[in-house]
Specification:
alpha/beta, Nucleotidyltransferase, domain 5, 4-stranded mixed beta sheet, 31% helix, globular
Length: 239
């Protein structure tokens, strides 16, 4: 099947776009800090133009649903919702922590990954994932299962949970949390990697099995994932 997916992510300091078309992947990653809203749409326009496509020729829109910065997650969800409404596209949400695990697999061959994103306020967004290859008629994909569910907690609490798990020394670590809170790295519970921020490029292989399984959302069903309960979200159509 000639699947075309457009992915975007603004949930962290990175501003990222990727396109799967005719089996080839195009992508662009920038450090945007507080300029996501200015950068993401021009990046989308350029990557579509480079592929000779219009938005309505895309089969589905993929977006980083969080966790990440409150503003960045809101921006990404809002942009995805607006584009999906305008072009009548289905949407596939992807975890930013899982996207970094996928990057660790593709770069390092990792099948166990501990993700930790700096959540400020002396906390991290984190999880511990185990992956295995799954074959289907549509290809071979990594399927990730949580050994520690996505959560927000203190670095010390994450260390305690990891120490209760077997063989974390075979894991790779990803995300900004390890450098933001040195006690995490000093606990020496996983192998170091240079995967600091999520990229839309690694959301595409996670979205493909969702497409084939028809696990799709429409625009009004989009829900960002903050992990902190005190943040509210209002969908564009007023729901």
């Amino acid at each position: 099947m000639n699947l075309t997916l457009l992915a975007l992510d603004t949930s962290t300091e990175a501003c990222s776009v990727a396109l799967l078309h005719r089996g080839e992947t195009l992508w662009a990653d920038e450090q945007a800090q507080r300029s996501h809203t200015k950068r993401i749409l021009p990046m989308i326009d350029k990557i579509l133009a480079d592929a000779g496509l219009h938005l309505k020729q895309v089969d589905a829109l993929v977006f980083g649903r969080g966790p990440g910065s409150f503003t960045g997650v809101r921006v990404g969800a809002g942009i995805a919702q607006g584009l999906a409404l305008g072009a009548d596209l289905p949407v596939i949400p992807v975890s930013n922590l899982t996207a970094m695990a996928q990057a660790a697999y593709e770069i390092h061959g990792a099948n166990k990954v501990i993700g930790a994103i700096d959540a400020r306020m002396e906390e991290v967004y984190c999880c511990y994932l185990s992956g295995q290859k799954v074959r289907s008629e549509f290809g071979e994909f990594m399927q990730w299962q949580p050994l520690i569910e996505e959560q927000v907690c203190s670095p010390q609490r994450l260390i305690e949970q990891l120490k209760a798990m077997p063989q974390t020394e075979a894991c790779w670590r990803v995300g900004t949390g390890w450098s933001a809170y040195p006690q995490l790295a000093e606990a020496d519970l996983a192998r170091s990697s240079d995967i600091i921020l999520p990229s839309a490029r690694y959301m595409l292989p996670l979205a493909q099995p969702e497409w084939y399984a028809k696990r799709l959302l429409n625009a009004v069903e989009i829900e960002p994932v903050y992990l902190r309960n005190q943040v509210t979200w209002k969908k564009l159509p007023g729901r």
